[in-house]
Write a structure and sequence with these properties.
The protein has 409 residues and is mainly alpha-helical. Helix content is 62%, strand content 9%. Belongs to the glycosyltransferase 4 family. Its EC number is 2.7.8.15.
């Protein structure tokens, strides 16, 4: 029986704790430097509309990378110093490819914060950053088969080989993870808060699987090595980004977080389980589709609207003429209104009908359902939703799956 390597895990946690202390100091120092360089953003949901230093996510991301660089020898010390045979080159290459993909995404995220890249670039760049990951997966594992639910086994068999479609799936998974956090943002603490819940859910899943299945030990250790430092450094960032925010995390943090989750999900061989932890992000993405694809007119910013008189947030709206909508757009708007997902108002201006609808995001939907609320309360509500979703994901993964699969690993 292969034992859990305690020394690398303890070293990982020690480096992570040291990195967290360093992050707290450097975020404070660099926030002043960023402000001097006018690398700032306006806090739209405050009466003061103060300028906040950004993107501070690049600081914690850099510290995270330093932790990983210092940690690289630790998982392999038995082979390096004790002269054990058969050095695990496949694990070493996987580790380096994960580091490379995350590092690439941090660089691209920082470029987006500075250059304000267009959406087509935001979709293309994660795909490029994932290529090292896909190549290593193809060489080391090349497992493209998926288990088929019991109900469909008479048609497809117990296992179905997706072939190249599986690589398309994991490539799209990386694109989704990096952008899903980015579009589910806009209030103090939400980006870091949701990411921390996902990271802690991954750690809990890794620990459960290590205790359950010896055969998957190396996969989940790999995930822990990457995720634990992230939790330590991001907890510090949350302290600075929590209401009232003293720093903004920027797109760098969102891309960095998304790529990290994609790396551990793909190379840790639990990409489908990973998606279960992204349920609020999936819901937000599905809600956003009509505006993302311009079926419904999409304003530049879909942040909640701040009411200075009450110091509360209400849902923001998109305003457009009725004749701007295609027939498909009108049916889409009616569908979302029918199920209570958006609020729609009509008014006559001159000879034209003007439509006003709440923006298609989960944040605005929460404000529509629960009414205006303080920014801090809204952040707590949405992070609580993330926690409940993760608990439901564990229920699906370990209990409900028994009704669809013969073996639940």
């Amino acid at each position: 029986m292969e034992s859990v390597p305690v020394v690398p895990l303890m070293y990982n946690m020690l480096l992570s704790a040291g990195g967290a202390l360093l992050a707290n100091s450097l975020v404070k120092e660099f926030s002043k430097l960023f402000a001097k360089l006018r690398m700032q953003g306006t806090d739209m949901c405050k009466k003061s509309r103060s300028m906040i230093p950004q993107p501070m996510g690049v600081v914690t991301a850099a510290i995270y990378m330093i932790i990983l660089f210092l940690f690289i020898p630790a998982p392999f010390y038995r082979w390096i110093y004790d002269s054990e045979p058969m050095f695990p080159y496949h694990r070493f290459v996987e580790f380096l490819s994960g580091v490379l993909s995350i590092c690439s995404m941090i660089f691209l995220g920082f470029a987006d914060d500075i250059l304000n890249l267009k959406w087509r670039h935001k979709l293309l760049l994660p795909s490029i950053a994932t290529l090292p990951l896909l190549m290593v997966y193809a060489v080391n594992s090349n497992s493209t088969s998926v288990a088929v639910p019991i109900q469909l086994q008479p048609i497809f068999g117990a296992v179905f080989n997706l072939g190249i479609l599986y690589y398309a799936y994991i490539g799209m998974l990386a694109v989704f993870c990096t952008n899903a956090i980015n579009i589910y943002a806009g209030i103090n603490g939400l980006e870091v808060g949701q990411s921390l819940v996902i990271a802690l859910s991954i750690i809990a899943f890794n620990i459960i699987q290590i205790l359950r299945l010896e055969s998957q030990l190396s996969f989940h250790l790999f995930s822990l090595y990457f995720t634990v430092p992230y939790v330590f450094t991001s907890t510090v960032l949350l302290r600075w980004n929590w209401y009232p925010a003293r720093v903004f995390v920027g797109d760098t943090f969102c891309y960095f977080s998304g790529m990290l989750f994609a790396v551990v999900g793909i190379l840790g061989h639990f990409s489908k389980t990973l998606l279960l932890f992204f349920m609020p992000q999936v819901l937000n993405f599905l809600l956003s589709l009509p505006q993302l694809f311009h079926v419904i007119p999409c304003p530049r910013h879909r942040l909640p609207k701040y009411d200075e008189s009450t110091d509360r947030l209400t849902y923001s709206v998109a305003q457009f003429r009725a004749n701007e909508l295609t027939q498909f757009g009108s049916k889409t708007l009616s569908f979302f209104e029918k199920f209570g997902l958006v609020a729609v108002r009509k008014k006559i201006e001159g000879h034209e009908t003007v439509l006003e609808c709440s923006n298609f995001t989960l944040i605005n939907l929460a404000l529509k359902l629960f009414g205006p609320m303080h920014e801090k309360c809204l952040a707590l509500l949405l992070i609580s939703l993330q926690v409940v979703s993760s608990l439901f994901a564990f229920f699906l993964r370990f209990y409900l799956a028994k009704f669809f699969f013969n073996v639940v690993e």
